């Protein structure tokens, strides 16, 4: 059962719904040919469905998206033509009872396809319009059969069609509404999670995001903790807006200097962190020095201290971060930015 559920979750349902009429139409053509009871008009409609599905499934990729969208109205048109022919053109043909039953059953595929492709309100309107067309084309037939003395067929068929298919449309609408609400809730949750893991001043990931990433990190990444020097001097001399601008310049510089796959964080205040996938402590020092040199061109008071360490085997995240933090303070205590930061 779990394997079946997993397979269903990975099924491309809209594509699967193209296979259903393709297989059904192909088998029907084969049966009609074998039995030698193949009316030309039914064969033409079945062939149209087969050709449409083959193009939608295996045709040029630039066509497929448009054909997927066009599938429900195309199927609806084919079923409507088959329905009209069964009622008025070939009412006594041996294939007509099967054709009527097929239309009534395959209408459900139209409904499901519509609810998969359109918003709930639009899907309800389309399904209701299609059901209304079928009922409208059925009314003259019902009146004709009623006058011919077949009251059961004339009254029973329209009401069964109306109530059963209306109930199905209502259920599909309910599920579609629930699915849309779930998608919206997931989007809101993702947005809130992103906000909770972002620093509003710099747009970088924050301490919470770093903690989550450290929990998932193996021994290979290098953790670098950076403390910005000179922020207080800039705040005192030029105001807090200038201090914020200083932090944003450091943030932008770290992002630009980091390699693809590396991550940059602002921990709060004047502290940043880097999680570098391929670098060593010396490379982390050079990166910080490069960014600091660029920021100093704007704010000469700026400086930075960095502590960069790899994770020890079986070390906790808290211990790993503490070693990086101590290495940063050791570098700050040296007061010599040209010296490499110690690896704790």
UniProtKB/TrEMBL annotation:
<feature type="transmembrane region" description="Helical">
    <location>
        <begin position="155"/>
        <end position="175"/>
    </location>
</feature>
<feature type="domain" description="GGDEF">
    <location>
        <begin position="219"/>
        <end position="344"/>
    </location>
</feature>
<dbReference type="GO" id="GO:0052621">
    <property type="term" value="F:diguanylate cyclase activity"/>
</dbReference>
<feature type="transmembrane region" description="Helical">
    <location>
        <begin position="102"/>
        <end position="120"/>
    </location>
</feature>
<dbReference type="GO" id="GO:0043709">
    <property type="term" value="P:cell adhesion involved in single-species biofilm formation"/>
</dbReference>
<protein>
    <submittedName>
        <fullName>Diguanylate cyclase, putative</fullName>
    </submittedName>
</protein>
<feature type="transmembrane region" description="Helical">
    <location>
        <begin position="16"/>
        <end position="35"/>
    </location>
</feature>
<keyword id="KW-0812">Transmembrane</keyword>
<dbReference type="GO" id="GO:1902201">
    <property type="term" value="P:negative regulation of bacterial-type flagellum-dependent cell motility"/>
</dbReference>
<feature type="transmembrane region" description="Helical">
    <location>
        <begin position="41"/>
        <end position="58"/>
    </location>
</feature>
<keyword id="KW-0614">Plasmid</keyword>
<dbReference type="GO" id="GO:0005886">
    <property type="term" value="C:plasma membrane"/>
</dbReference>
<dbReference type="Pfam" id="PF00990">
    <property type="entry name" value="GGDEF"/>
</dbReference>
<keyword id="KW-1133">Transmembrane helix</keyword>
<keyword id="KW-0472">Membrane</keyword>
<feature type="transmembrane region" description="Helical">
    <location>
        <begin position="65"/>
        <end position="90"/>
    </location>
</feature>
<dbReference type="InterPro" id="IPR000160">
    <property type="entry name" value="GGDEF_dom"/>
</dbReference>
<dbReference type="InterPro" id="IPR050469">
    <property type="entry name" value="Diguanylate_Cyclase"/>
</dbReference>
<feature type="transmembrane region" description="Helical">
    <location>
        <begin position="127"/>
        <end position="143"/>
    </location>
</feature>
<dbReference type="InterPro" id="IPR043128">
    <property type="entry name" value="Rev_trsase/Diguanyl_cyclase"/>
</dbReference>
<dbReference type="InterPro" id="IPR029787">
    <property type="entry name" value="Nucleotide_cyclase"/>
</dbReference>
